[in-house]
Amino acid sequence: MIQNVPNVPLAFREGDEPPESGGCPIGGQFVITQSIDLFAGKRVILFSLPGAFTPTCSTYQLPGFDGQYDEFKALGIDEIYCISVNDAFVMNEWARQLGIKNVKVVPDGNGDFTRHMGMLVRKSAIGFGMRSHRYAAIIKDGVVEQMFAEPGLEDNHPADPYGVSSPENVMKYLKGQSS
Q1: Domain for residue 150, yes or no?
Q2: Does 1 fall in a domain?
Q3: N vs C: which end of the chain shows fewer Cβ within 10 Å?
Q4: How far from 39 is each of 22, 59, 108, CA to CA, in Å?
Q5: Does the pLDDT value for residue 134 go beyond 80?
Q6: How far is it, in rounded angstroms, from Cα 21 to Cα 124?
Q7: Which of 38, 52, 57, 136 is catalytic?
Q8: Quick check: is 146 in a domain?
Q9: What's the number of CA atoms in the CB half-sphere (13 Å) around residue 140?
């Protein structure tokens, strides 16, 4: 298991506004941020999933972490990040459509962060290409404190397990730490 998070550039999109007639948000710009800067001086929950707009990710994982944000903060978490091998346009629109208020979405469009985390897997059997294996991690000042990786870390795994990386399981771990 890795100890430090990788330091790679991530391309965020800021300032886009949807046109009045609908369609793709425009008018903003790409902002490149080094991944290590997201974690410096903070205790963070990072969770990753196979893709935006997918059922488990959209119904349970992202909304679950967002809905329990205040409880995570009370247990010493400074930020919660959701990273996926999707581009910034997709990640921003996904968060907007789900009404996400607290979790920050992190685009890993090239899969570089995910690859360096050892979590990049082929999901070509379902037409996804290279994506992230589902996991969560508690990271303190850029160092992985605890990893919650779902079983089946392999290319084209036939199932999409969910439970180990759930907000409820991460919360259980944090509550055990605080007692």
Answers
A1: yes
A2: no
A3: C
A4: 35, 26, 15
A5: yes
A6: 35
A7: 57
A8: yes
A9: 4
8 Å CB contact between 48 and 150: no
24: annotated active-site residue: no
Q: Which residues have C-beta within 8 Å of that of residue 153, sequence separation ≥ 6?
A: 119, 121, 133
Express each pLDDT in 135-171 by its tens digit.
999 999 999 999 999 999 999 999 999 999 999 999 9
| 135 DSSP β-pair partners | 48, 149
The helix, strand and coil proportions of the chain, stated in percent and rounded to the nearest 5, come to 30, 30, 40
Residue 62 CA to residue 105 CA, distance in Å, equals 9
Q: Is there a domain that residue 52 lies in?
A: yes
What domain count does the chain have? Answer: 1
CA atoms within 13 A on the CB side of 121: 23
Domain ranges, residue 70: 9-178
Length of the chain as a residue count: 179
- Percent of the chain scoring above 70 in pLDDT: 98
CATH number where 153 lies: 3.40.30.10
pLDDT of residue 18: 84
Would the pTM of this model clear 0.90, i.e. be above it?
yes
